[in-house]
Design a protein that fits this description.
The chain has helices at about 1-30, 40-55, 60-70, 75-95, 100-120, 125-145, 150-160, 165-185, 205-215, 255-270, 290-300, 305-320, 320-325, 330-335, 355-370, 375-390, 415-435, 440-445, 450-455, 465-475, 480-495; strands spanning about 225-230, 235-240, 240-245. The chain is mainly alpha-helical. Helix 1 (about 1-30) packs across helix 3, helix 9 (about 205-215) packs parallel to helix 10 (about 255-270) and helix 15 crosses helix 17 (about 415-435). The chain is globular. The N and C termini lie far apart (about 65 Å). Bound molecules: zinc ion.
């Protein structure tokens, strides 16, 4: 009995997976190669597939199968986990009334459009009623799906299953306590950024370099592609098809190179998910923070380490001799790590980046605890930036209007960036505990041992556990921000003799 039901369940999961693959391919195509004239017809095709997916994901027959299987003692642990994840998704999808789904889609569609105009004009008043509507609908959404302690838990759960606002608050408080003194001490010593970072860098040569680099780091180009898009991203289309993008500008070299390293971290994770599980809920990535832990580790712990930077520079000099010929490894190391206080999150460096996330989380939480009104957001934002970053935005364009997330109804998303960064440092420290120092490897540009460790401990586990549990299993201890703080202290105190 159990097996026949399982087969029916697995067939439904395969069908949902295939619809998801079609949607992923449409989305990649739209971001990378689709002609602009196709926008309207593509939007319709996507909406049709979305609604077909939604009706299959909420089909009562699927709910019955899940109910039958959830208590089936004949299922092994792997199958039980898939059914449990499917139940969580099914319950969520069926608890939200159709008119709320539609209202949210409409409000965020218009909200995003208005935001794209409000930001360059620095005009929060235009955006305010739309954001008010989106926040109200997201509160309704949280109430519909339910939560452990408070509304924000429901939003967080969409990105980090099982994590609560209180848990994030606790981790972030410990992070801020440790981080702010390090930032103050380092920035007192760090001067202006080195000038060699700007110059002329042939785009064709950058492209050839990045194609070589991603392959060198282990990205399987027979099972993936590196293309170009204005906002770099990685997407797994299906087994054997993981696509990443970067962007090239002729007067800047590091943004294409470091975007490619970051996205390769995402792509290696996708390429390491076990193929035999890919059609099942257990085969998906564990959460956004887990995904980001992979990209940040390759970008920062590997890509910005003194050892790897020396290797990178020697390889870059082969192609960019005229601009980089006179640059020493020490200068280049300082250049790729140079920290400063800044107003814009996406331009922030490794040292100060998380200050930007913590303030967004605090503001989101206050809104969903009914302690902060949307109308008071710009002033609250400016105060928070002053408190955490030490600067005051000159206008809302460089303040509360800078990110698209809230216009898209993505409240609860921001913490995943910082959690991923903290996991990255903790995992890397554990990898070095298990493998011995990786400095010698990185000096030679060699990352195979690290990748094998990640494959064995993280990638091959896919979605066997929620990230919180998965991290504890990898680390053999509860997770904390301490490895990240230790990493920053060691690196930046040495770099600036602070
Ligand atoms: Zn990322």
């Amino acid at each position: 009995m159990g097996n026949a039901k399982w087969e029916q369940f697995a067939a439904r999961m395969r069908e949902l997976t295939d619809l998801g693959r079609a949607l992923s391919l449409l989305s990649w195509d739209q971001s990378v190669v689709m002609p602009g004239k196709a926008a309207a017809s593509r939007a319709r095709a996507t909406a049709t597939l979305d609604s077909l997916t939604h009706s299959k994901a909420t089909d009562p027959g699927l709910g019955d199968l899940i109910d039958d299987l959830i208590d089936d003692p004949s299922l092994d642990d792997l199958r039980r986990r898939s059914v449990e994840v499917a139940k969580r998704d099914y319950d969520k999808a069926t608890k939200v009334p159709d008119d709320l789904v539609r209202a949210l889609a409409e409000a965020t569609g218009i909200g995003y459009q208005v935001w794209t105009e409000a930001r360059p004009a620095s005009d929060f008043a235009v955006f305010e009623p739309h954001l008010e509507k989106i926040v109200a609908l997201r509160k309704e959404y949280a109430d519909a799906v339910g939560y452990a302690n408070e509304r924000y838990d429901a939003l967080l759960d969409d990105y980090e299953p099982g994590l609560t606002a209180i848990e994030v608050e606790t981790v972030f408080a410990e992070l801020i306590d440790g981080l702010e003194p390090i930032v103050d001490r380092v920035l007192a010593k760090a001067g202006p950024a080195p000038a060699f970072l700007r110059g002329k860098f042939d785009v064709g040569a950058q492209e050839a370099f990045c194609q070589w680099l991603v392959g060198h780091l282990g990205f399987d180009t027979a099972g993936g592609r590196l293309d170009v898009s204005p906002h770099p991203f990685t997407i797994q289309i299906s087994a054997g098809d993981t696509r990443q993008t970067t962007r090239y500008t002729a007067d800047e070299l590091l943004s294409s190179v470091y975007a490619a390293i970051h996205e390769t971290g995402h792509a290696l994770y996708d390429q390491g998910l076990p193929e035999e599980w890919l059609d099942l809920p257990i085969g998906h990535y564990s959460s956004l923070a887990m995904h980001e832990s992979q990209s940040r580790m390759w970008e920062n712990q590997v890509g910005r380490s003194r050892e790897f930077v020396g290797f990178l520079l020697s390889k870059l000099k082969e192609r960019f001799e005229s601009s980089l010929g006179g640059v020493t490894p020490d200068e280049f190391y300082e250049g790729v790590n140079h920290p400063e206080r800044s107003l814009i999150r996406v331009e922030a460096d490794e040292l100060t980046y998380n200050l930007h996330i913590v303030l967004r989380f605090e503001l989101e939480l206050a809104m969903f605890r009914d302690e902060l009104a949307v109308a008071d957001l710009p002033e609250a934002w400016n105060k928070a930036v002053e408190q955490h970053v030490g600067l005051r935005p000159s206008d809302d364009r460089k303040g509360v209007l800078q990110d698209m997330h809230w216009s898209g109804g993505m409240q609860g998303y921001f913490p995943t960036y910082t959690l991923g960064t903290l996991y990255a440092a903790a995992f890397y420290a554990k990898a070095e505990t298990d493998l011995g120092s990786l400095e010698g490897d990185l000096k030679r540009g060699e990352t195979r041992r690290l990748l094998e460790w990640l494959r064995a401990n993280i990638h091959s586990k896919a979605n066997r556990y929620d990230t919180k549990v998965a991290a504890e299993k990898v680390l053999g201890a509860p997770f904390s921000p301490k490895p990240f703080l230790d990493y920053l202290e060691t690196k930046y105190f040495e770099l600036y003799d602070a």
